[in-house]
Each structure stands twice: as C-alpha cells, then as structure tokens.
Amino acid sequence: MAKFIFVTGGVVSSLGKGITSASIGALLKSRGIRVKLQKFDPYLNVDPGTMNPYQHGEVYVTEDGAETDLDLGHYERFTGDYTSRASNATAGSVYYEVLMKERRGDYLGKTIQMVPHITDEIKRRVRKLDTPEVDVVICEVGGTVGDIESLIFLEAIRQIGQEEGRNNVLYIHLTLVPYIRAAGEIKTKPTQHSVGKLREIGIIPDVLICRSELPLSKEIRDKISLFCNVQAHAVIEEIDVKHTIYEVPFVFAEQGLDTLICNQLGLRGAGRDLTKWRKVVSVLTRAETTVPIAVVGKYSELQDAYKSIYEAIMHGGVANECKVDIRKVLSEDIEEKGAATVLAGVKGILVPGGFGTRGVQGKILAIQYAREKGVPFFGICLGLQCAVIEFARNACGLPKANTTEIDPDTSDPVICLLEEQKVVVDKGATMRLGAYPCHLQPNTKALDAYGEAEISERHRHRYEFNNKYREAMSAKGMVFSGLSPDGELVEIIELADLPWFVATQFHPEFKSRPVDAHPLFRDFVKAALNRKDE
Ligand code: GLN
Hints:
Elements: E1 3-9, H1 17-29, E2 35-41, H2 53-56, E3 60-61, E4 67-68, H3 71-79, E5 88-90, H4 91-104, H5 114-128, E6 136-141, H6 151-164, E7 169-176, E8 179-180, E9 185-186, H7 189-201, E10 207-212, H8 218-228, E11 235-239, H9 248-254, H10 257-265, H11 275-286, E12 290-297, H12 307-319, E13 323-330, H13 331-337, H14 339-342, E14 348-351, H15 360-373, E15 377-380, H16 382-395, E16 401-403, E17 412-417, H17 419-422, E18 432-440, H18 445-450, E19 454-461, E20 463-465, H19 470-475, E21 478-483, E22 490-495, E23 501-504, H20 519-530
Parallel strand pairs: 1-6, 1-7, 2-5, 2-6, 7-10, 10-11, 12-13, 12-14, 14-15, 15-23, 16-17
Antiparallel strand pairs: 3-4, 8-9, 17-20, 18-19, 18-21, 21-22, 22-23
This protein binds glutamine.
C-alpha cells in the first residue's frame, strides 16, 4: 500500500506548487523511494487541450497521449519518470465521469450528490496511482485554499486522511510569507488565515512550506508554528532561488524535509544521492560560456507558453557545459523589422509548435534567414511545417506553397490533413497525440544524435507532410531523416548541406531532462556553440 502526500496552496496562486511537488518527488526519489505524482485542476474543461496559452500556458503531452497541465512536465523532469493520463484530472473530467454514469443508470435511482459521488470519484482517481510499484503518491491540488472550485477536492483528500490513517497521509501546505517593504517586516498573518481556512475544512497541515523573498528568522518560524499548530521543524522556508528551479530540491534537503517526510510516513529510504543534480546546478550557476539562441514564437511574452522548450534548451546547455541566453522573439516583430535586424547575433534559431495563422509569416522569414545564413536551426511541429513551406517556396519554385491549416485552397498544399483527419469535427483530444515510433535513416544528423535507428517520440498535431512533394523536395536537397515505420509519415527533415538544420513533426522537448538532455537539443546547442561569428 502506498502512502499519500497532498500538496495544497494558500494565500495567492503562482507560488510554484508544481515545482515544489516535483522537488519533493525528486528528493524522495534520490533516496530510492518510488514516487508517482498527480495534479488536480479545479476548472471545468475536461482537459487543457482546448485552452489557449494565454489561459493556460503550455499543454504537456504524456506518452499515452493525454493533453495535460504543464506541471506534469515538472514532474517528469524532476523525477525522470513518465506520467500518464491518470496523472492529471480536472474537475470537468470528474463531473463528466459521474454524469455519464448517472445517464447510464449505474447509480440505480439514487440522488447524485457532491458528497459522496463526486468525492468518491476524486478518491478513486487518487487511488488509481496506488500500485505495487509505488511507495508514495504525491498529489497536488490546484487552485488556492478558499476557492469555491477547489473545495470538493479538499473534502476528498480530507476523507482519504480519515480512511488511510494519519501515519499514511501527509498534508503539505504551500503559502506566501510576504515582506512588506514600507513596514520593513515579514508578515505571517496571510499564512495564519490560510491554515485557518484549511482547518475549517478539517485538514490539519503537517508541513508548511513558506515562499518568501527573505530568509525566515527563528522568531518568525516559531510564530508560524505557534499560530498554525505546526511543529517548528516542519515550517520550511522556500526562498526565491537565484539561478535555476533545479536548486529547489537542495533548498528542501538542507532543511531536512525529506527526512521529516520519511519519519512521519514511516518510509525507509536509502541515503540521499543528489550527485547528478549537483552537476546540473553547478553548470547553470557557474558555466563561463553563454550561447544566445532565439526562440521565435507567437506567445513569446508568456513565460509558460513554451515551458518545456525553454527547459529542454537549458538541458542542452548543461550537456555542453554552457548556459544558454534564450532570446524570446515575437515572430510578428520579424514581420515588421526583418529577420536580419531581429535575429542579429544569435547563434541558433528554434521555431516551436503552434496553431493558426498569426505569426506564421515571421516564423517562415526566420527559417529563411537560418537556411540562407547557415545559422543552426531546430524546428518543432509547426516549426517543421514552416520549414517545409519555406523550402517549397524559396528553393523549389512553389511560391504558393502553404499548409491547408492556413490556406485550405492553396494550389500547393505541402502540409495537409490525412484522410482520416478530414472527417473529425470535435476539437477536444482529436489530434495525433502521444508516443509514436519513428525510424531514422542512415547518414543523418538525426541518427548521429540519437545513436540508434528506432526511436519513439510524442506528437500533438493534425497536419502532416504531403507525400506528393517528397520527390521534388528531395531533389532540391531536403532529407527525410525520420519516417513512421511504414514509411508513410514524415517525422524528421533536415538539410544536409548546412551545419545543423533539423526539424521534427513530434515534440522532443517533452522527453528532455536536466540530468539527461534530449539528444536533439544537445546537438542543436552544440552546433550553436560551434557557430563562428559572421
Ligand atoms: N498546427 C499544426 C498542426 O495541427 C502544428 C501543431 C503543433 O505545432 N503542435 O498540425
């Protein structure tokens, strides 16, 4: 039987519950304890797949093809383990399940209620992760204590505490301890109120993790301990880290959080081994070389829209013992000012995934610049599709080439829908999603990077390369270096004459880890490092 850790958040949102939960997972794993992480999202969308990045940031895709919250990306990067469809549940998906059962008549005439029917479904989702391969389930409840939406999730996790017994369940509450500049003081009152709210529901936190700008003095910790009814050594400070989020596990380790968790839950782990993590943090804080790489997107002002891409680029830097100065470039800026102005001085250009027409022209201009100047280029998903369009237009004499996503009537649909996608009308969860096998061709940069011909990567797209154009483009020098096992789907393209010009239809960023950079990101950063100034 697994133990359960529930992570809730108080005072304000955006305190970094995801990174906190992931860091706890990493610490327990470093002691040989087997963990599984899960996230509950209190909103009503059935999954975040239909939400735009302004609402929700990146949509993270799991091996089994679920479109999930970006915190699952943190979970995978910090623990190195794969998450799955079961690792993320929204209130919408919980209600949906219960209502479907009601319609089927599964409840045999009963009145369906929040308690026990919705709470039972939530508890079922939590316990689904309790398998013989798991020692601890870490479950993060999204939202902030006091929200109407998250109440039902808190009720469900309270019940689990009752049912499993207090030695098997640990409640961790993440709060903000603000520094009020005008008063020159650190304030504990918001934390007291937040814990008070939790206790009203019947949850008594065992551990408080306090986000703060400044270190907490012994007096402050004692005060929090006294007013919140939490032992002083269980008041943990999570001070803003200086260089990288990968420092957070060390912040907790120094305060013995993992030991405290193990003692309270009766877990017998091995000694903590953070050797690999130490190297990551050391490169990210001390590396002397910094390489400038542009990410040309249409949501470049949003920190979270390309989360896994930014992380994977950083991992690529770690593998090459350098830092990367990621320049977030708005593709529309390139449309306005020209690629040469906006991209001057960068040593690598990455064009990430995306949907819709806005910004595509700027991406195409960026790719043309990369191809003509030989700047290392990495295209991902829409980035591959734009690279194909650019090559068709400017190297193959097809000026009207386009994707049918943008121009359904184009005379040269180099990117288009497959027959089976044409009949799909629903928008939710209907793309090509999740892990698919891919076969790499000999003498290619892709094979160089992976070092093996059979790979598997995660997808999230509707449109594909149109095979009608394979011959013409290949005659002009485009190499189709990764194909589906039946040879039908183009998964990777590259241009052999250039130092490094590779684009993938899949999303390699989802499988990159700080301690184990994705081979394509590693080689892309390496090519950027090797680029000589013009
Ligand atoms: N919009 C493109 C498609 O649906 C690309 C999607 C993506 O970049 N994730 O195929």
